[in-house]
Amino acid sequence: MKAIVPETLTFEADGTCILFSDPNTRVEMLEIAPGAIIDAHSHKEQRVFVCFVRSGGCQLFIAGRLFRPQAGQTFEVEPGDVLAFHNDTPHISRVLLTRIGFKEGDKVPLGKQWNELELAKKA
Hints:
By secondary structure, the protein is mainly beta.
């Protein structure tokens, strides 16, 4: 047994810390800095569970809907769903990502800016 304390983890420059990885599954902690945006993307095959450990009020765009999750909320992202994050707060957000069917190169960037996603949602 190992207790995982986000404040003691070492995050890469992109805000990720891999906690577990095997050929089919990856679990990682993602730290989203204040003001940071993770561009819109989808995944070809993998299913991702997104659990907000510390929300800080970060916005989540998923499958055409906009959320402002609180700590403890979890979302399932199915293959092909559009996913993006915008931390428009002065607080760090931490997210636990569990990727089922993980494959390198599965991420598909969509080339849309955050404001384009919001406009598409309102249309």
